[in-house]
Amino acid sequence: MNVEYINPFIKSTINALSTMAFVNPQRSKLYIKTDFEQTSDISGTIGLAGEATGFVTINFPEKIALTIVSNMLGEQMKNITPVVKDAVGEIANMIAGGAKGELIEKGYSFKISLPVVSIGKNHYTNYAKENPCIVIPFIIPEGEFTVDVVLSRTVNIA
Question: Following DSSP, what letter does each residue of 25-83 receive, concatenated?
């Protein structure tokens, strides 16, 4: 995977959460995921298509999702509700949209899908094993969440 694809997702995550949820996530060390299992409670996924295809997924433990959504909405969220689910989808959308904008500025062409939100302890996210899943961990005072990025170059058949 082209490292030029990853930095826009890092910047966009920090920007979206600092602007909308008033938290300052600090990036930790990136790694490659080797299985499908999520260690989160709620995930928002956006599909990507264009010069590269794949997806970006933001993964939150319940406590962090509730903190971030509470900050966004200005009211205390105590459980994962449809409102929290929608907010996580919107966060995923903001991250993908911000990264897309930066990638377009660099000359790449991408389209993004609508968000899909998954809820449940240790749920699974499918991706093609032949494409690396880069995990970007972020730390805030309440704990850690991750952003997964899977992209592969699109092959044009003429």
Answer: -EE---EEE-SSB--SSEEEEEEEEESEEEEEEEEE-HHHHHHHHHHHHTS---S--HH
Residue 55 near residue 116, CB atoms below 8 Å: no
**For residue 18, how many other CB atoms are within 10 A of its CB?**
12
Query: For strand 42-50 and strand 143-153, is the pairing parallel, antiparallel, or unpaired?
Result: unpaired
The number of angstroms, rounded, from the C-alpha of 85 to the middle of its chain's C-alpha atoms is 14
Backbone angles phi, psi at 26, to 5 degrees: -105, 125
Note the pLDDT tens digit of each residue in 96-120: 999 999 988 888 888 999 999 999 8
Burial per residue of 75-114, b for 16 or more beta-carbon CB atoms within 10 angstroms, e otherwise: eebeebeeebbebbbbbbbbbbebbbebbeeeebebebee
| Predicted model pTM | 0.90
Q: What are 28-48's pLDDT values in tens digits? A: 999 988 776 667 899 999 999
* Burial (Cβ within 10 Å: 0-12, 13-18, ≥19) of residue 130: exposed
Q: What is the gyration radius of the CA atoms in the chain, in angstroms?
A: 15
User: Hey, which residues does 134 pair with through a beta bridge?
Assistant: 32, 149
